[in-house]
Amino acid sequence: MKRAIGKCWRDSASLIVIAKRNVDVSSSGNAGDCNYDILLQTRTHSASFSNSVVFPGGVCEEADASDHWLHLLSSFGYNHRDFETLHKASAPVTPILANNPVKRHIALRITAIRETFEELGLLICSSRHKNNKSDSWSQFVCGVDVKYWQARLNKDPLDFLVLCKEHNCYPDIFGLHYWSNWLSPTHLPRRFDTAFFLAALENKPSDIKANSEVVKVEWSTPLDTLERNKNRQLILYPPQAYELNRFSYFKDIDKLKDFAKEKSCEGNDLIFPTAIQAADGIAHLLPGDYLYPSNVDLNIETVIEEAKTLEELRDTNQTLHRFETSKRGTFVVTQNYKPSNHINMGDQVKPLNASIHMKV
Prior knowledge:
Elements: E1 2-3, E2 10-20, E3 36-43, E4 53-54, E5 57-59, H1 68-74, H2 80-84, H3 101-120, E6 125-126, H4 146-155, H5 159-166, E7 170-171, E8 176-183, E9 192-201, E10 214-220, H6 222-230, H7 238-247, H8 253-264, E11 270-271, E12 274-277, E13 281-285, E14 296-297, E15 303-305, E16 320-326, E17 329-335, E18 348-352
Helix pairs in contact: 3-4, 6-7
């Protein structure tokens, strides 16, 4: 059981944008047989998640939950039955979806789309009426004065609604697929409960205009990004490293898109790390691990101390789902872990160059 009474974090949303690769011009050096790239950005030193490679996204604003969005979406043919498809009644209701999961889904998707535009100038919106939108590819709108609207949205997030009305479009919330939900560890000074969504583009946007918080924008395959991370050419935070690892099991964008769309309404369990201090390092346990506590308080820092080493804590007959950090480095470890409604990564011990801010 997880308790979140009086939460001390901010809700946020992140958008994982994938796009078909150009088969004639390779955009990464280690593509393998993967036919898609992921949109990545590197934040400045002063920004959140500084100097690391992350997906676009940011915190939720009150404007993202305005009822005016429902009126706009309704003008393009969507109704309450369409909204209810975003969340199956039997799906998990984690803290970020509490009270009204359907409305929270709408607001979180708008957050992810708005923040992606604010950071990268990529407008994941559609002008198509519901009756003319049959495929599962995400849409994006071009021809917008990006710098002008980025400045306006930075001052007032509700101006995103004005942007959409002036360009006769709406946030393509039905082109987004709910992928995962991560909550920052308790000891961090700034914590975020983040919903990750996937947007699959049939064609790669040609004009990305990043704002001042972004120093680099790139398209890269999951394997290429993980390989450069392994070689210490870039830094990843645990959620990004973990999700890129999951993506590496899909080589085909159509299969990945269809999988994401099918699982979206089924929801996701909350991924919240808890720590075990071992004799030679620390294990950051994830749900499903045989040592993960049965009763977790999401607001109170709890570190279990163990006299055993990290290697000794890897019971070969048990389920392992964790990050391990020691003098040897950081590794993601899975064994006998079979997640419900998600990718089975099998048994693995993979090195990561990850920024894990835990007390060791």
